[in-house]
Write a structure and sequence with these properties.
With 452 residues, the chain is of the alpha/beta class. The chain contains 14 helices and 22 strands. It has helices at 22-36, 51-64, 77-86, 119-132, 150-158, 180-187, 220-229, 256-270, 284-292, 304-314, 339-351, 355-365, 379-390, 433-447, and strands spanning 12-15, 40-45, 68-74, 91-95, 104-111, 144-146, 170-174, 194-198, 233-237, 244-247, 253-254, 275-278, 296-299, 318-320, 326-328, 334-335, 372-375, 396-398, 403-406, 410-416, 423-429, 450-451. Strands 1-5-4-2-3-6 form a 6-stranded mixed beta sheet, sandwiched between helices. Strand 7 (170-174), helix 6 and strand 8 (194-198) form a beta-alpha-beta unit. Helix 1 (22-36) packs across helix 2 and helix 8 (256-270) packs parallel to helix 9.
Length: 452
């Protein structure tokens, strides 16, 4: 039995061809069929150089196993989510490595209704089956059909807003040479916006750097674009655009935490009493907004598979993570990087306010450190050391996801990453930026390690 080491907590991801190649992709797809027993599957791919060959290997594996395949072409991860729930398919496979370097690629797997297959919902079993590489022969191969769902997808995206509410905003859009650019082009005729397009053309070599706006160095081009053009706002995406990132009219990066509160408030203004799911990293702003607007907050462990499970279990209308993942009930509880900015732009137009005015007050009320990463040798030991250092004065301690500790006027969460060998720290206070800076500095001293 050959070990396959590209399986992660939420998906498959690795360097091509050393960790992921056509043979491994074929075996993983065959294992997926053995695990799921599907009849019809959607396959989508991003624009990386290796995505075509990996996609062909996956489609061959599926058809060899007797599965009928809908090849929906090139798109972002949410396109395979959409295809799966929109066409009532048994599942979908997305070929992407999101914001990883160009030499990497991966696979994201879902089952019916776009339910994720992750470490806790079948990915380990699929890994075992792929490593065993012992698949039954089928007498009747499956068929492949190319399917153009883009018009339906664009129509669905536009259903979240009333275009009559929109004004002529000027918006900088930075696709990072990933898959978002063509979607903006298709939305453009339906919207009154002027788009200033940066790194717009899809290019799997990522000539302008890996598309990951979480990295500060990657934000400069968007910021400069806003300031040079006098734009009303900026939006940037990662490679498969399952996350979107906001910049206000001054080029200031808006932490995803405040966007969660903004979207929660927007949904509750239309439908009170709804449940909103949030992660434990930063919470006070989100909780206050939800409770003040007649909603019910539900806390979930971080990570898309956990958030989606919690949303589905509670029939939540919206869920948001500080990592810029946003989830929607009408999108089969899945995450989208297109729906959030459409909703935010409509809100700006309706309230006749710039993005800064929509978030400024909340940023003052609940200043945050932003997520800070540290490489450490032993995450469990560091978490235990932090808890021992702070337990005496803590009012509340939670272990829903890593370690969360609350005090009268500040709180923090520190958790081990599910995808990288890092500890991630978030600190927030009540209207006290100085305290936030002080406590963040002290916590980093306790954590030690190196910047990640």
């Amino acid at each position: 039995m050959t070990e396959i080491n590209c399986f992660k907590a939420y998906d498959v991801r690795g360097q091509v061809p050393e960790e992921l190649n056509e043979d491994i992709a074929y075996r993983i797809a065959r294992a997926y069929v053995e695990f799921l027993s599907p009849t019809q599957i959607a396959v989508c791919r991003d624009i990386r150089a290796s995505s075509n060959t990996l996609s062909r290997a996956i489609i061959k594996a599926l058809t060899d196993a007797g599965v009928h395949v809908f090849d929906i072409g090139i798109g972002g991860t949410e396109f395979v989510y959409f295809a799966t729930f929109h066409k009532n398919l048994d599942g979908g496979i997305m070929v992407t490595a999101s914001h990883n370097p160009p030499a990497h690629n991966g696979m994201k797997l879902v089952r019916e209704q776009s339910k994720p297959i992750s470490e806790n919902t079948g990915l380990k079993e699929i890994q075992t089956l792929a490593e065993q590489n012992n698949f039954p022969k089928t007498s009747q191969p499956g068929m492949v059909k190319e399917l153009d769902l883009m018009p339906d997808y664009i129509e669905h995206l536009l259903s979240y807003i009333e275009t009559k509410n929109l004004n002529a905003l000027k918006i900088v859009v930075n696709a990072g040479n990933g898959c978002a650019g063509p979607i903006i082009d298709l939305l453009e005729p339906h919207l009154p916006f002027q788009f200033i397009k940066l790194h717009h053309k899809p290019d799997g070599s990522f000539p302008n750097g890996v598309p990951n706006p979480m990295l500060e160095k990657n934000r400069r081009v968007t910021i400069d674009g806003i300031r040079d053009s006098g734009a009303d706002m900026g939006i940037a995406w990662d490679g498969d655009f399952d996350r979107c990132f906001f910049f206000d009219e001054d080029g200031r990066f808006i932490d995803g935490y405040y966007v969660v509160g903004l979207l929660a408030q927007t949904f509750l203004s239309k439908s009170q009493g709804e449940r909103i799911v949030h992660d434990p990293r930063l919470t006070w702003n989100t909780l206050e907004i939800i409770e003040n607007n007649g909603g019910l907050p539900i806390q979930s462990r971080s990570g898309h598979s956990f958030i989606k499970q919690t949303m589905r279990r509670n029939d939540a209308i919206y869920g948001g993570e500080t990592s810029a993942h946003h989830y929607f009930r009408e999108f089969s509880y899945a995450d989208s990087g297109m729906i959030p900015w459409l909703i935010v732009t409509e809100l700006m137009c309706q309230r006749k306010l710039p993005l800064s005015a929509l978030v400024d007050e909340r940023m003052v009320l609940f200043p945050t450190s932003g997520e800070i990463n540290r490489k450490v040798d032993d995450s469990a030991e560091v978490l235990a050391r932090i808890e021992k250092s702070y337990i005496r004065h803590a009012l509340r301690v939670h272990h829903v996801d890593g370690l969360s500790m609350e005090f009268s006027d500040w709180r923090f969460n520190v958790r081990a990453s599910n995808t990288e060998p890092l500890l991630r720290l978030n600190v927030e206070t009540r209207s006290n930026e100085g305290l936030m800076l002080t406590q963040t500095k002290q916590l980093l001293e306790v954590i030690g390690g190196e910047p990640g």
